[in-house]
Amino acid sequence: MKKSIPAILSLVILVSCLLTACGSPSPSESPSTSPSVSPTESATPSVSPSTDPSTGASTSPSIDPIEPSISASASPSAEPTISASPSPSNKPKPSPSEKPSPTPSASPSPSLTPRPSPIDEPSPSPSIEPSIEPSPSTDANLAETSPLTDIMAAILTDAELPRVIETELTSDLFKAYLFIDPIDGAEALSSDAMMSSVAHSVVLLRVPKGSDAEAIAADIEKNANPLKWVCVSAKKVVVKSTGNLILLVMSSEANADIIAKNFEEKI
Length: 267
Known about the structure:
The protein has 267 residues and is of the alpha+beta class. The chain has helices at residues 4-23, 139-145, 148-155, 174-177, 213-223, 253-266; strands spanning 43-44, 47-48, 62-63, 164-169, 187-193, 201-206, 236-242, 245-251. It has a five-stranded antiparallel sheet with strand order 4-5-6-8-7, sandwiched between helices. Strands 2-3 form a two-stranded antiparallel ribbon.
């Protein structure tokens, strides 16, 4: 009898497993319908001898059925709920707040007291002394200092001259051009026509200081020969003197007058 008890328990356990396996819901069933299988059979085998132990004879035992108390609540296994872990938000991480660098406070610059600029005293402009133009020199001064060539060019201005040639007269030419004997220390210059067929001659004579220029001029005028060209003759002869300078002109009347006038005004 004791040996049959484990067999019965094994059978009961096997039946319970079969019931549990059959009662488990298929995966397709909705988890909302969860059958609750609770077997009501509870067999508690009680083995008690029917005979009095004093008799010593054991009759067939009365086996109270052992009701196995199987409370199997077959609740369908809930499908695992996969909760998607929230993806990390793509929100930009707040960058560490950059503290604005403190603006250096401008230290008050020392007040610069403007120095009074030195007054530029106007430099005394060099006093321009009025140039004292020399007063027109007297005839004697010009006659004594100016070169004969310059005087000749001045007195021939505005005259209608033929082609002329200037000659510095030496002592042996005095007679041919001035009609007087040579004078020691004197200088003379002539401007005569290049062609002997043109009667034109202008001669300047500067005598030494202390000489009697007027007397010498009168001697020249007395001896002047307007026919010295033989073939032609000068139309007019003019002799002028100023200071120690003497002029002899033998030419046409127009040229003689212009040259004489220039000599009086410019020399």
